[in-house]
């Protein structure tokens, strides 16, 4: 995000640069049905598309839709992208929080509002059957669930889980999230510096604690989807993160494989 690049890693080739975005802050990633990569551009307030020649084009201009900066995203199997509009001013900039929303971007680039009145939407996942979506409300400390219609619309909003604070009275800030075949989620708690596995009844099944690093996003991958990859920041504000390479990706093996998208 602060290095202005999209990277990929493979066991045989190591880390490779997929796209350069000078001066931009790339965020959520996902793929269209034809395999082209979509990238959320936070500063430009746009959804970009990586073409076969390596160039980036605007898939959807979100400037007239966003109240704040866009952040995380999930892309359904048909290429419909759901982009979280935080409602927040840019990092380090003055301004008040506005109601967040989830923008639906059709495969042809058409934009509409899928859900409104969200408290800083962040990590989001879609189940294997494409019928439900789970979404983090970062500044409310909770995960909500929606039914996904055949037209891509969202309805039947309900609470999936309240994310508990690491210690009584402390702040909680859930961020990136992924889903497993039990219907449980792994979610990063930025404030508590930990990654939690939350079951469908809202109880905590596992807790991976960090001492100095801050976990911000996670996904279940590998050939069997039993490797939990955790993106962790070195900490600090935007002014520090802009000039450091202290971020890391940590992996650990888990018992239950990943499911859904991403």
Structural features, described:
- The protein is an all-beta fold and 262 residues long.
- The mean pLDDT is 93.
- The protein has one helix at 238-241; strands spanning 5-10, 14-20, 26-31, 37-41, 46-50, 56-61, 70-75, 81-85, 100-105, 111-118, 121-126, 132-137, 142-148, 154-162, 174-180, 185-189, 194-198, 204-209, 214-221, 227-233, 248-253, 258-259.
- Helices cover 2% and strands 51% of the residues.
Low-confidence stretches: none
The helix-strand sequence is EEEEEEEEEEEEEEEEEEEEHEE
Q: What amount of the residues lies in strands?
A: over 45%
Instruction: Measure the end-to-end span.
Output: 18 Å
Helix content: under 10%
Shape label: globular
Strand order of the largest sheet: 18-17-16-15-22
Based on secondary structure, the structural category is mainly beta
Number of strands: 22
Largest sheet: 5 strands, antiparallel
Mean pLDDT across all amino acids: 93
Number of helices: 1
Using the CA coordinates, give the radius of gyration.
Answer: 17 Å
Précis, in short:
With 262 residues, the chain is an all-beta fold. It is 2% helix and 51% strand.
